Amino acid sequence: ESDTASEISFQFNKHKKTPSTGSHSSDMASVSSVSGSVLSVYSGDFGSVDAQGTVEFALDYDEKNREFQVHVSQCKDLAVVDEKKGRSDPYVKTYLLPDKARMGKRKTSVKKRTVNPVYNEVLRYKIEKMVLLIQKLNLSVWHNDPLGRNSFLGEIEVDLASWDWSNRKLNWYPLRPRSLSAVNGVDHRGVMNLSIKYVPPGSLGKVCPRNPPSGEVHIWVKDVKDLLQLRPSGVDSFVKCYVLPDTSKKSYQKTRVIKRDPNPVFNHTIVYDGFHTEDLKDACVELTVWDHEKLTNHFLGGIRLGLGTGLSYGISVDWMDSTQEEVAFWQEMMSAANEWIEGLLPLRSL
User: Fold this and answer.
1) Domain-by-domain residue ranges, the chain?
2) pLDDT in tens, 219-253
3) For 190-347, CATH number?
4) What are the start and end residues of every segment in region (Disordered) (predicted)?
5) Is the pTM higher than 0.70?
6) Is the pLDDT of residue 74 over 90?
């Protein structure tokens, strides 16, 4: 049994392929995503040039202003991107791992036509020292191409937990190829254990005349494992659920908050009714996991269950982007009416 159960009604118009406006329906006029996309922080060209050269920088923490400072001094002997012109236009970019999206990127100005750029710039992060000490600094150098894809020139990764904070001097560090944590760090956000079931119209027993027969989608969020921990005290997580394209309050459901546990057990069931069988190919169940804090919640990862066609009721939408695993899970539910389908799906950026 689940500790809580939520039920919400939807009315889909199966003839016009657009949501109805009946008394029990939600406002489904909007087909925009429930939240802004977390853009890939590693978009660019990684294979065109080999990483080489060095970067000079220093790290410091300003206790008074609670500010982490990265003093980027200069680079030497960077790779040449445009061999015909012997040209590179480099800049330096930084992120704090594991959650790049939370603190955002910082970057220097672009220095044109040089493989030995001098910056003397300070990149700043407002962050508590205790939180900083469970982060890693990813510092990378890029060639700026305003007409195409920026080219990766090398990077260095610093474990801030083991950093010598008494060292405030500028030091030289070799630039390396893309690291494994850069490839996998933001992608591995944990896994969700859940079951889903579709109950077709007419299999629910007797219904009153005012409530015509309709299908139901049952979502049983069991637990999540290996969540990102963004602070030393641990993660206080909860799960949000929408059935897109509906992003109204009627669509929104959530679990309780599980405190200080990277492996929370929710055991929470949500039931959405008003589904006709044909609606399953146009709807998408979005489940997102969040870290709860007093002032704001931080996105940890999510899944989208649907057919991943890019279309919803004939309209092109960016949230119909289910992975192969998510599509297979949804298809299995569609083909096995009235049966619980269990799955273990990796959380991802949405």
Assistant:
1) 46-182, 190-347
2) 999 999 988 877 777 889 999 999 999 888 888 99
3) 2.60.40.150
4) 1-29
5) no
6) yes
CATH topology of domain 46-182: Immunoglobulin-like (2.60.40)
Same CATH topology for 46-182 and 190-347: the answer is: yes
